[in-house]
Specification:
CATH class: Mainly Beta
Strand order of the largest sheet: 3-2-1-4-5
CATH topology: SH3 type barrels
Order of helices and strands: EEEEEH
Number of helices: 1
Structural class: alpha+beta
Radius of gyration: 13 Å
Distance between the termini: 21 Å
Shape: elongated
Strand content: 35-45%
Length: 74
């Protein structure tokens, strides 16, 4: 199973961007998308694979949090 997670681009230097995943910032390769600072991207295996709007990103993160909360209850 492959997982991709949305994050917000906070800075870009060439093909590398700092992407914020809820307070955790990671370097991500953005060569596959035309992202700008402030945009949300979907990241898989260190690569931004698509852009998404903020509302959709927040909805996706909420679903992830709900899933994680359910796992804790098991």
């Amino acid at each position: 199973m492959c997982l991709a997670v949305p994050g917000k681009v906070t800075s870009i230097d060439g093909n590398q961007a700092d992407v914020d995943f809820g307070g955790v910032v990671r370097k991500v390769n953005v060569s596959l998308v035309e992202a700008t600072v402030g945009e949300w991207v979907v990241v898989h295996a260190g690569f931004a694979i698509e852009k998404m709007d903020e509302e959709e990103a927040k909805e996706t993160l909420e679903l992830w949090n709900d899933l994680l909360d359910q796992e804790e209850e098991l």
